[in-house]
């Protein structure tokens, strides 16, 4: 544990503490600098993505009471780049008068998928049929009720495709459930949605209750990991766009979310063949599907998150281009770092906005992303192709 | 002097050292973060604008050989946020194999206005008639040659209106020259240009010789301090735009500039009543008249400067909006900090991009700027008005 560094904070400037040291905290620091702020970061290692670039870094463990208290001292707001801080420790901070945003009363819905589904159903948000699974019998009954189309999920801790299973038949479901319950995994099941694509409806909300959505985007996952976001989502009726934006604002308000909320959605056809949406996941922080806002929007998700947790009025979320595509740079099997490839990338793609996280390469690890803006809606296909090529080249050295 | 901090630099990432700790270094760090870099900053104080936000801060004096050597150790490039490092010290670094960009052979033209004027004349760039002034007789002869329309300048060290004098008559000229020569100020004089407006033509150049201009902007000074930039410069023929862009690239190439170059220009009417331009000043670093690129261009001047000094291919400089206006926030006489005003500012101007430098307020000091983008060329007047109002409010608390 190093001590906090008061010289990092301008006279009169609010101090925002970010618990977490990954790329989301790193990119919050980018925006903090321009707003005249500087973050204090609780980091697990001095060379972590955010610790590399911030001035006021406290080394410690987000699961330790003493470390959280130390980093939070004097903060105008405490926020997060993940949802895994134990709520009982956050409750203690709040009882000591610390301004924690978002609060555990909201975070619980991002931490526990069963709580989330139950709450969403309660407020009338579209969710697939679901059930808690505490026995093989529960699983069998649920499977029967949805015609065998079952997705099994760990209630807690899953991300990037981890903690989700797609049993092919009841036999596989039974053995999975037995195995996971034996390992003390809390389980739920839900009906598989035969979705046509994934969408993400993002919004920011302040403690005072102002909400400001971004245009809904189309996202694409591969192996459970986000690989692309296209903004705004192409080929979508204004009515459906509006429904997505209103849904995100309603979820933020009803669940008491503050800061940035990502509502990941499935788009599918309902029984009448009409486009319909269903909530897949919630994230209460800046989100991979919002990285495009850095280069495609007046106000990025990182700036908006800082404004929101400080209860400042929210910024304009108009786009600055007809289309923006974000492609993730995922570590490949190849030797070498993206830094060896960036010159050639810049030569071939002068329009590409390169965002690298300062992270060591591991296969499949998110080490950066590329944003490209297009000059017309007609350019979506071309911009997608270029963004994907650019990201692939940074990751692997090949186009 | 604190030691350098290696954990600030990602494995494989180039290390860029910035000599200087002001807002230009601060905003370079913003872009460095997104490129996956982190700067090492030579700062005069731990709470200076750039030192607040960077992780790897070396405290020291840019006029001290030992401090420069310490901060430059292991750097992939050494660059600056001002032009005042003694050239003999930079020459020593270069002789030790350090990659200094821009080099003293170019910096000399930004440091000494007489060298600059002489060189520009030599390459055929438009400059007003000028002369070295080493005696009252020199001054009298020059004044006679230009019909008494004389501007007197200190050859070195002037900025923000300092080091420039406008004698009203020969008597005033004589006493000024006598006084300044007695004070060992190196002087030059040039013919006053009856300009209609000021322009700024900015360009970046790499050591390999690639140049990439930005659209020329209209700038406005008050008391010698930049207060506004409108991009692109309105009401300008394509021919004149192109002439400005070509001029900036030619100056960068002929003077061997690397990194960002600002060519400040006067626009005036020639003897035939046609629009003409004349070079006023050069700056070899990101420049106040380029701050609009942060929110109005695909590639900002701060990102481009980093790319250029690392000899990376330069980024696209297309605008992302038909008009962008930058207004400076200059410290007022009022009590209080901009942080007390920012909530009200954000409520009234959700579209404003607020950039604050973490600097204590002093009257007239540049403490931040506001960028606003407009949706159409017709909106120039409205966007100018809003940007000025926003900046004034942050500075003074009144609209």
UniProtKB/TrEMBL annotation, chains A, B:
GO terms for molecular function: 5-(carboxyamino)imidazole ribonucleotide synthase activity; ATP binding; metal ion binding; phosphoribosylaminoimidazole carboxylase activity. Pathway: Purine metabolism; IMP biosynthesis via de novo pathway; 5-amino-1-(5-phospho-D-ribosyl)imidazole-4-carboxylate from 5-amino-1-(5-phospho-D-ribosyl)imidazole (N5-CAIR route): step 1/2. ATP binds at residues 113, 153, 190-193, 198, 280-281. SUPFAM superfamilies: Glutathione synthetase ATP-binding domain-like, PreATP-grasp domain, Rudiment single hybrid motif. Residues 117-310 form the ATP-grasp domain. Coiled coil: none annotated. One of its GO terms (cellular component) is cytosol. Keywords: ATP-binding, Ligase, Nucleotide-binding, Purine biosynthesis. The keyword ATP-binding applies. InterPro entries: ATP-grasp (IPR011761), ATP-grasp_carboxylate-amine (IPR003135), ATP_grasp_subdomain_1 (IPR013815), PreATP-grasp_dom_sf (IPR016185), PurK (IPR005875), PurK_C (IPR040686), PurT/PurK_preATP-grasp (IPR054350), Rudment_hybrid_motif (IPR011054). GO terms for biological process: 'de novo' IMP biosynthetic process. PROSITE patterns: ATP_GRASP. It is an enzyme of class 6 (ligase). Its EC number is 6.3.4.18. It catalyses: 5-amino-1-(5-phospho-beta-D-ribosyl)imidazole + hydrogencarbonate + ATP = 5-carboxyamino-1-(5-phospho-D-ribosyl)imidazole + ADP + phosphate + 2 H(+). Catalyzes the ATP-dependent conversion of 5-aminoimidazole ribonucleotide (AIR) and HCO(3)(-) to N5-carboxyaminoimidazole ribonucleotide (N5-CAIR). NCBIfam families: PRK06019.1-5 (NF004679), PRK06019.1-6 (NF004680), purK (TIGR01161). Homodimer. Belongs to the PurK/PurT family. This is N5-carboxyaminoimidazole ribonucleotide synthase. It comes from Corynebacterium tapiri. The gene is purK.
